[in-house]
Design brief:
By secondary structure, this protein is an all-alpha fold. It has one domain: Sodium/glucose cotransporter. Helix content is about 75%, strand content about 0%. It contains 24 helices and four strands. The strands form two sheets. Strands 1-4 form a two-stranded parallel ribbon.
Length: about 575
């Protein structure tokens, strides 16, 4: 009962704050509904960026990766800071100069209307068919055991998944449909404060558990007993080999943080460029601390399970790596904190869901409805179309939850990376060309988009026959990591667009014009802070590498298989 009460109190508190901050705002204009009236300041932008990114697919998925593979999963956090710096220094000034609402809108300015429609359709499909169902599935995976849902509605896993997923979708959809982007951003900021507190409690209590009440002793035990699990980079047999940092990892993180509508939309709502850069770089700084709550808990859970030093009767062994985070939470968190922490996780789930739903609505309303279906539509009609789209997308995403459930034994984050690569690699390739080439024609971008998706589906999914990027994949008889396949795809697409640039160049070079929508004077400390972050990332990797070396991927995998009583099927 105490868990439920504390959960409800914090959840209601967030809803009241969101209503109070947005109830007087205009929601009948495109800028007001989709871009919060271009009024967001840096703390809100930074907090919303972080919490949109942070949800149960991260907490459950990356910690599951840490449980199975060790600290090298920190790549998706620390290395991402470099991509966020690129967003602040390179991409954001270009975006705000054109006063855009969506990424496809920028691509229309650079290329043509067909490229805009094509990228909009691709982005909407990605959000509705993959991202939204994935968020609901991973959220339900966490919430079901925390609240003991089986005790109330039975032990049918599919029914429980649908019921909890539906509740998450309805509440998260309410923010996006009726509150617009500002309600989403405000709720993100409040939830982010709670999640920062709650998220850090788990590794603190976990280390204390391992150290029998002494957190530092617990950390020492983990480092001394299995130092290979603290290595920041992997060898060629690892889940993320070190050399993939310079191919697929950089491409995917850059696409996510610089071109993903669900992420970058809150930066488009910045009051001015300086505020946008401050908020974006603040998010980059905070990502450096991500491994503390997104990887370390998974490593702690592995040590606890390996040692057998826990109450097996009241805390069942995780069925697979995806259950590691929930196992540790239930094991180490005091009863008084369970409800509060569940509320912060609930907020993180809602944040990701409503943010991507709002972005899907924006893409549909601005790019597809106004751009193709009704080109003379008013702002009010566009907002209404976006809301109708969101109302239809919610039940569809709930139904698709069961699809992801059928792959429950696979590493959640690996599975997500594999699917989103189909659209992300083509997207980042044409965006890079849009920024660096003034004469590559629109037809080159259109061909690259289609060719890149076909390439990634065939070589990244069908020709591999496995889930995720955890093993070497086949490429014309060569075995290589899936992240390298993504890198080859990128190079292939760049060659396609280079061929069009040489054989059929644009008649006139592209020149970007300033829309005048907001002040684009850059923050004077943006470049120094960005350079400082690059140095910080290098220092983190070099210091940890010199201490722990490379993760011997085969050895870590063998340890996982040998020590885990119910191993994930070999891939």
């Amino acid at each position: 009962m105490l868990t439920l009460i504390s959960f409800l109190l914090f959840t209601i508190f967030v809803a009241v704050i969101s209503w109070w901050k947005t109830h007087d705002d205009r929601q009948d204009t495109a800028d007001g509904y989709f871009l919060a009236g271009r009024s967001l300041v840096w703390p809100v932008i930074g907090g919303s960026l972080l919490l949109t990114n942070l949800s149960t697919e991260q907490l459950v998925g990356i910690n599951g990766g840490g449980y199975q593979h060790g600290m090298l999963l920190m790549t998706w956090e620390v290395w991402s800071s470099l991509s966020i710096v690129a967003m602040a220094i390179i991409f954001l000034p270009k975006y705000l100069k054109s006063g855009i609402t969506t990424i496809p809108e920028f691509l229309e300015i650079r290329f043509d209307h067909r490229v805009r429609l094509l990228t909009s359709l691709i982005s909407v499909i990605l959000i509705v068919l993959i991202l939204l169902p994935f968020i609901l599935f991973s959220g339900a995976e966490f919430m079901i055991p925390v609240f003991g849902v089986e005790q109330y509605i039975g032990d049918n896993p599919s029914v429980n998944m649908l019921v909890v997923g539906s509740l998450l979708a309805l509440i998260g959809g309410g923010y996006a449909v009726f509150g617009g982007l500002k309600a989403v951003a405000v709720s993100d900021t409040v939830n982010g404060i709670g999640l920062a507190v709650g998220g850090l409690l788990i590794p603190i209590f976990g280390l204390s558990y391992v150290g029998h009440g002494d957190m530092w002793q617990g950390l020492s035990t983990i480092v001394v007993q299995h130092p290979e699990r603290m290595a920041p980079m992997g060898d060629s047999d690892a889940n993320i080999p070190w050399h993939t940092l310079f191919t697929g990892v950089t491409l995917l993180t850059t696409c996510y943080w610089c071109t993903n509508q669900g992420i970058v939309q809150r930066t488009f709502a910045a009051k001015n460029l300086a505020e946008g850069q401050k908020g974006t770089l603040f998010a980059a700084v905070m990502k450096l601390f991500g491994p503390l709550y997104l990887v370390l808990p998974g490593i702690i859970a592995w040590h606890v399970v390996s040692s057998g030093d826990y109450d097996l009767a009241n805390h069942p062994i995780p069925k697979d790596a995806n259950g590691a985070y929930g196992f540790l939470v239930n094991l180490v968190l005091p009863d008084w904190a369970t409800g509060f922490f569940a509320a912060t996780i609930f907020g993180a789930i809602l944040s990701s869901f409503n943010s991507f739903l709002n972005s899907g609505s924006t893409l549909f309303a601005i790019d597809i409805y106004q751009g193709m279906l009704k080109r003379n539509a008013t702002d009010q009609e566009a907002v209404r179309a976006g809301r109708i789209f969101a109302l239809l997308a919610v039940p569809l995403s709930v139904c698709l939850v069961l699809f992801f459930k059928s792959y429950g034994q696979a590493g959640l984050f690996d599975l997500l990376i594999q699917y989103v690569s189909v659209t992300n690699i083509p997207m980042i390739s044409i965006m890079v060309v849009a920024l660096i080439s003034k004469r590559t024609p629109a037809i080159g971008a259109s061909v690259a988009l289609i060719a890149g998706m076909v390439f990634q589906v065939f070589f990244g999914i069908l020709n591999d026959g496995n889930l995720g990027f955890t093993i070497a994949e086949k490429f014309y008889g060569w075995k290589m990591h899936g992240l390298h396949v993504a890198g080859i795809n990128f190079a292939f697409l760049m060659l396609i667009m280079l061929a069009f640039r040489v054989l059929k160049p644009q008649a006139e070079p592209f020149e970007q014009k300033y829309s005048g929508d907001i002040d684009i004077t850059p923050w004077k400390l943006a470049i120094p802070v960005g350079l400082g972050l690059i140095v910080a990332v290098a220092a983190i990797y070099l210091s940890m590498w010199s201490r722990f070396g490379l993760t011997p991927g085969a050895k870590v995998a063998a340890e996982y298989e040998a020590r885990h009583p119910s191993p994930v099927p070999a891939k």
